[in-house]
Amino acid sequence: MTAITYFLILLALLISVLIAYYQYFYKQSDNSTLPKILFVLKFSSLFLLLILLINPKIESTKTTNEKPVLSLLVDNSSSIDYFEENQTVNDLITLLERNKALANKFSIEKFSFGNDLQILDSLSFDNTNTNISKAIQDVNELQKGKKSPIVVLTDGNQTKGLDYSFITSEQSIYPIVIGDTTKYEDVSIAQVNVNKYSYLNNKFPVEIILNYDGTLSNRLPVSIIKNGKRIYQKQVNFSKTKKSATISAELKSLTEGLQYYTVSVGKLENEKNSKNNVKSFSIEVINEQTKIALISSIVHPDLGALKKAIESNKQRSLEIFSIDKFKENVNDYQLVILYQPTIKFNAILNQLKKSESNYWLISGANTNWSFINQQNIGISKNAINQTENLIPFYNESFLTFLQEDINFNNLPPLTDKFGDVTISGEKQTLIFQNLNGVITKQPLLTFLESNSTKKGFLLGEGIWKWRATSYLNTNSFEEFDNFIGNIIQYLASTKKRNRLEVNVESIHPANSSIKIAAFYTDKNYRFDDRANLEIKVTNSESKEVTSIPFSLIKKSYQAEIENLASGDYFYEVTVENQNIRKTGRFKVSEFEIEQQFTNANKDKLNTLALNTDGQLYYPNEIEQLSQELMSNENYYTIQKSNKIEENLINWKWLLFVAIGLLSIEWFVRKYNGKI
């Protein structure tokens, strides 16, 4: 409280005393105790009312005890059910929940994980993947800056994500191994490496990586089967010292379209799990390759980034030319990329305009905008000889082709000459310019389509930084390469644009969730969110039909199909009341990723525990785990004191006390004939 507040309280005290004294003692001759009682009542009520009018701020201290958090992570994947350990997991959760000592020391938070981390409600043990590393990282983020142990109930068999055994964790981790830890003799197909595309009548390589866990010598056949016919076979030897093998095979592409193959390795005599002895793959056989020419006036890191991104799809090849050495015919290429054009590009641009060929123009600090402005190609810029940094801003309403947001808004800025851009004709802009936090309608990446010609314009150099940043964010170039691939697919295509496009993977593991995306436009090729789309999936063998309606999510239609049996499927996507449909096929393999393991991975879990200052436990060691957590001095209750400042007027009970005192005073006076 301030000095003025204290002064006002003293003044209120004095006024209350004077008024009460004046009323009951001034010029009064009554020496009984009644005036004294009335004096106290009057003084108290007046003082309380005046204090409420002054309304001083009252400071108080509230003390709370904050227990350390014990995070309990429970594996909810189907591998727990496969190992028949459902009851074991449920029993362990019950034991930990009923441990009064732990409950007194810790605030226990329970989560389940498989595909994702979720607050534990109930366990179904049906998740089709296990991502232990992400679960730990998510909990670490929740408990950032605190000392909170993590107990993980899992078999340690991870099917996706980073290697969890060497993960950096702020918290100590105490794994409880679920499942049989006995090592059984086993052979498995660890990986099949193959390109997505092959050319008709060409040979394509297939790399098969096999793992062996055992001590005996074995000789097993490895086969590749297509349409029930064995097209490749080789014998492979394993022993106590030879634990793995890599087989390289060459197959010939004889039929155009999507082709399915199955790799299998022979079963060991006493092998417990043979489900990991089979794995399927697919390859799309195409007739020709998309040829792209990139013509540049300078040497720049962007050129290498574009080449790597474009050629990540083996269906495409990119040739890089210096403008001074380009003597080719532009008609020999499905797409031409013009990088930072200058006046030397005059002949090339004339050829492209004459042949109505598609092209992609990328500008930058060395671009001659005066030359471009004279070409009448649909874009101009009143550029000055000064550069500016242009931050990308993703346009969610972009409709030309399906492109998801790959965190565009957080990618590094591109560099171009300063000036306003003018586009003539109808454009579709995928990325706008963000200038110092101001979102403009100036395009950074835009597309024009007139008659049969498609043009793309990227107004800035430095796209190599986008590829590098995308890798740092996702540990993969895939997102960026797919983004560039979408641009190339659109610009290189000379086919009439389809109003309905469907995107679905060609092969899926058994029991997995199959996600299908569709993109539908009206007759003007604008995204149509009023349509009703449906997919019919037919099993090629049983002829059983499954029909699923699409849901509209943002700017695409999406459907999700679950519980399809292994086999080949044909699909047909239709639009209600429109004669528009799209067909295709996919395969659900017998490969169940959660059933590829023969035992619990105690070694990796032990490494995880040691690297995080934790300790590995088994289901029969719950009491030891409890004792460790209880005795560990790193986990303690924190007492927090918070100063609370509150206005006295919020203490409503004081008003009622004052009214009560005034009422008692009136009653006493009335009773004693003083009124």
Keywords:
675 residues, five-stranded mixed β-sheet, Rossmann fold, extended
Describe this structure in words.
The structure is a single chain. By secondary structure, the chain is α/β, with parallel strands linked by helices. The chain folds into 5 domains: 3-63 and 643-671; 68-182 and 599-636, von Willebrand factor, type A domain (Rossmann fold, 3-Layer(aba) Sandwich); 186-286, Immunoglobulin-like; 292-492, 3-Layer(aba) Sandwich (Rossmann fold), CATH 3.40.50; 500-593, Immunoglobulin-like, CATH 2.60.40. Helix content is 25%, strand content 35%. The protein contains 14 helices and 35 strands. The strands form 8 sheets. The protein has a 9-stranded mixed beta sheet with strand order 16-15-17-18-25-24-23-20-21, with helices on one face. Strand 3 (107-113) and strand 4 (117-119) form a beta hairpin. The model has no long low-confidence stretch (mean pLDDT 89).
Short description:
The chain is α/β, with parallel strands linked by helices. 25% of the residues lie in helices and 35% in strands.
Question: Which bin fits the share of residues in helices?
Answer: 25-40%
Largest sheet: 9 strands, mixed
Beta-strand level of the residues, as a percent range?
35-45%
Mean pLDDT: 89
Total of helices? 14
Structural class: alpha/beta
* β-strand number: 35
The assigned CATH architecture of the largest domain is 3-Layer(aba) Sandwich
Q: Oligomeric form of this entry? A: single chain
Query: What is the approximate shape?
Result: extended
Strand order of the largest sheet: 16-15-17-18-25-24-23-20-21
Task: Count up the domains.
Answer: 5
> What gyration radius follows from the Cα positions, in whole Å?
37 Å
CATH topology name of the largest domain: Rossmann fold
Distance between the termini: 40 Å
Query: Class of the largest domain in CATH?
Result: Alpha Beta
Poorly predicted parts: none
